[in-house]
Amino acid sequence: MKHLILSLLALLTSAFVSAEYEIPWRAETSVNVGGGDFAPYFIASNSGGVYTQPAGIYERVSLRRELSTSGRFTYGFGAEAGFSFTESTGYDRYSAASASWSVRKLRAPYAWVQQLWGGVKFRGMFLTVGMNSDTRSLFDSPLGVGDITLSGNARPIPQARIGFIDFQDIPFTRGWVQIQVEVAYGKFTDADWLRNHFNHYNSFITTGVWFHYKRCYFRTDPDRPFSVTVGMQHAAQFGGYYNAYSDGKIYETAGQRVTFRDFVDVFIQKRGSSGATGGDRQYYNGNHLGSWDFRARYRFADRSELTAYFQWPWEDGSGIGKLNGWDGVWGINYKAPSPGWVDEVQVEYIDFTNQSGPVHWAPGDHPDTSIPGQATGADNYYNNYYYDGWANYGMSVGTPFVKSPLYNRDGYPLFTDNRIRGFQAGVAGSPAEGLKYRVLMAYRNSRGTPVEPAPRLRHATSAMVEASYCIKRVKGLSVRGQIAFDAGSLTGNRYGVLLALSYDGLIRFGRK
After folding, report:
1. What is the pLDDT of residue 106?
2. How many angstroms separate the CA atoms of 328 and 134, rounded?
3. Distance between CA 121 and CA 118 in Å, rounded?
4. On the CB side of 234, how many CA atoms lie within 13 Å of its CA?
5. Looking at residues 198-211, what average pLDDT do you find?
6. Residue 426 pLDDT more than 80?
7. Where do the domains of the chain lie?
8. pLDDT band (50, 70, 90) for residue 49
9. Could you tell me if residue 123 is left (phi over 0), alpha (psi between -120 and 50 degrees) or otherwise beta?
């Protein structure tokens, strides 16, 4: 093994010396200011969980070598560090020792690692290990609400991921049908964040949670004018240590070490698993969710494209069987054939109000009753009886259109507004060389959750204007500005401005 490692190091050193080698790097300084308890929706959303506070100064430095799809063997890596000083936000906190409430002022971390990963590709297969901001989603458009299963809204989850680097031709179909598959296992690292933000009075907190993800997509020939992609995503939380609180005292605990069987049970779900709770052993190991995904794209003769798509969420078998009505994200996207005043337009309708009906009744939940039948409603998207919501460091791992737990200033760890309905629309363009813009607007209303309905309809209207410009006199230097606001009872009234100055450069090794 020692000789093999030395041989590989010698080979890499030889490659650096014998040929020119470049690593892209980026440095960005940004400042945001505004009013309200948090940054506006469009500044905070799909930004990797960075811009959540109402005001702050941020410095981010990164380098990244992408995994190339060309060549038989390639490798890639990335690292990003962040530094910030932000305004704090108060969260309610209960102290059992003094039997009193207080407000705990919390802010973004002064320093953190946003990305740290490495990967290899051989032929059509890839393997990456670490925290990577690239979710490889088909639905993370800069104009949309984000992938409802796994978006770029939260900080990356440390994980190992393996699969096809891109779509691969299925044998004997002559390229008419392609497949893309990938699988990941990882672990959430937000235990300290959860402890700091939890109210320690009611509800529960679960730390040390493991992560699982897989997907399978099929696509018709993309070189044809008309192409269709269809498939499913599946994600899960499993393992972890659970503490339930009532009136500031722990009244129930659960959890055990994760074993190899847990990894198998969460991949192939079956009743009677090895999980730590009665629910795991009665039903399935962990908290499972995902989406049915569909995209249909038509390319016109002038090379412009029109795409219609949907994502249907599911939390259990009723959702997989599409017993949740019109729930999902329904969208249409237009891309122009060349840059101009309008490069792209996107409109989405979002409906999460059905959730397979208002009632959940499973006989296994109540073994001492004799009531027959089963009603698998009240899906309660992104929430679970054992896990702290589908979130990482307080931000939704799925779409940010569902208000994240980070915004619960009472220290409640779950999603409070997942029965939502609304729309989002956006337009982007590049009217001049080096100049780009993006305009977004959204409206959403909430009826609380299926378990805890809101007594009154809560709503929010959000909008943002963004412009970026590459400064010609200094290659790699660019400036970006955003102005955004929220209004309504769902989020409160917020406004904010963000300005960012960034520089993209290259680190060069070897001979020219």
Report:
1. 96
2. 23
3. 11
4. 18
5. 95
6. yes
7. 2-509
8. very high
9. left
Residue from 250, 333, 320, 317 nearest 292 by CA: 320
**Which tokens hold the place of 449?**
């959750």
3-state helix, strand, coil in the chain (%, to 5): 10, 50, 40
State the DSSP H helix or E strand holding residue 191, giving kind and residue range, or none if neither.
Answer: helix 191-197
Is the torsion defined by CA of 446, 452, 453, 457 positive or negative?
A: negative
373: pLDDT strictly greater than 70: no
pTM beyond 0.70, yes or no: yes
3-class secondary structure per residue, 302-359: CCCEEEEEEEEEECCHHHHCCCCCCCEEEEEEEECCCCCCCCEEEEEEEECCCCCCCC
* CA-based nearest residue to 379, from 446, 329, 323, 428: 323
Report pLDDT digits (tens) over 170-185: 999 988 999 999 999 9
Q: Which of 171, 295, 298, 174 is nearest to 224 (CA)?
A: 298
Q: What are phi and psi of 493, to 5 degrees?
A: -90, 125
Give 1's pLDDT tier (boundaries 50, 70, 90). very low
CA–CA gap between residue 362 and residue 364 (Å, rounded):
5
Q: Which pLDDT band, with edges at 50, 70 and 90, does 281 fall under?
A: very low
Return the HEC string of 439-459: EEEEEEEEEECCCCEEEEEEE
5-14, 54-63, 204-213: segment of lowest average pLDDT: 5-14
CA 205 vs. chain centroid, Å, equals 21
Task: Report the pLDDT value the prediction gives residue 134, as an integer from 0 to 100.
Answer: 84
Give DSSP secondary structure letters for 229-298.
Answer: EEEEEEEEEEEEEEEEEETTEEEEEEE----HHHHHHHHS--SS---SSHHHHHS-SSEEEEEEEEEEEE
Longest alpha-carbon distance in the chain? 80
**pLDDT by residue (tens digit) across 210-226?**
999 999 999 999 999 99
Residue 343 falls in which region: left (phi positive, over 0), alpha (psi -120 to 50) or beta: alpha
Quick one: pLDDT at residue 231? Answer: 97
Report long-range pairs for 176-180 (Cβ below 8 Å, ≥24 apart): 176/220, 176/221, 177/218, 177/219, 177/220, 177/221, 178/218, 178/219, 178/220, 178/221, 178/222, 179/216, 179/217, 179/218, 179/219, 180/215, 180/216, 180/217, 180/219, 180/231
Tokens of 374: 């089963």
Q: Nearest to residue 210, comparing CAs of 241, 183, 234, 245?
A: 241
In words, the CATH class of domain 2-509 is mainly beta
